Amino acid sequence: MKTEFSLAQLADPDIAEADKILRACVHCGFCTATCPTYVLLGDELDSPRGRIYLIKEMLEKGRPPTREVVKHIDRCLSCLACMTTCPSGVNYMHLVDQARVRIEQQYKRPLTERMLRAVLALVLPRPKLFRISMVLARIARPLAALVPTPKVPSATPTLLSRIKAMLALAPGLLPPPGAAGGSVFAALGERRGRVALLQGCAQQVLAPRINQAAINLLTRHGIEVVLVRDEQCCGALTHHLGRAGDALARARANIAAWTAEAERGGLDAILVTTSGCGTVIKDYGYMLREDRDFAQPAAKISALAKDISEYVGNIELQKSRQQGNLVVAYHSACSLQHGQKITGLPKDLLSKNGFVVKDVPESHLCCGSAGTYNLLQPDIAGRLRDRKVANIAMLKPDVIAAGNIGCMVQIAGGTSVPVVHTIELLDWATGGPRPGSI
Hints:
The chain is built from 24 helices and nine strands. The chain is of the alpha/beta class. The longest helix is centred in the middle third of the chain and has 22 residues, at about 245-265.
């Protein structure tokens, strides 16, 4: 794709990067076939190719984002299926992230939307506030029935539809909090490794059992696990809201905390059980590439970061308990398959440990969770969830496995089939407790 940035514009490292990304695009349109919003809506501007044109024009002309640009960028899930499909290697992720930052800085949204986004950015990265919000949402959830449901689904969300989506996603009960930061879990028997385990934000409130399963499995196999005391939210939630300052501040804080822990006791890896977080942490090196103080440490931390399945895949697991003919529908989270290019490994681990694993049809399509997307774009997210659940139902599974808490909550909202994390099944298969929801 031909670009027309001036030399002055190209002096900006972000514009220079955008120029490189745009020039890689050859307009082939392969991305449209795997883009969830294009598949649903059929609008070229709701495809990666269409959004690339919108971003290109906005950046080249140096104009503030228009309402039309914002509408179509907001509808993007950042699922990155287009990056898997693209034969030219266009890094759409870094381009759309840059567009989100510009929108946040230069576009004035309606007051109610600004307030909503500010609340999400305040509450979601802070587990204590998030827990309080979930308790309040649980109390208010019966009121969701009073909010009218549109007769015809709309791709343009209203404040009421967003509030209804938030209340609907609130769990009936919250589990007790998991282990606190600063906890160290000793290896059982001879120590073979030492890792930090990301504590997460929403996950430690909604499903602390996931990290507990990871701790159980790792310590049982000789791995010491540390929950780093000064760790923060990874920054993914605010990063995808375009709040670059907040996201980068959190990244720097985590880099400092993990680097100190590595220097103090050594770390073989920083393990992540929420793949959406893992994709961003692995991108810290890029995000802070222009930071003189943090560029090198960020690159080191990104290299240490691993999805839990990557690390477990290199451990010789204890002989598995046979699980009979338990059929597992494996949902491949977008952040795992497209963001981190981890596709077959989780399924192989499950199969080798006694489960009958089945691929979900249209596995490349997003379930509609996508961080805060199911709260900000509930209608599109709901249609994607229903499509995903219908595809899963074709398999007649006993359980659904995924590697991302957002996907788990989203899918569970549309099915009665138990939804668990892949690591919960692997823990069970190698000596741990049976997941409570099965």
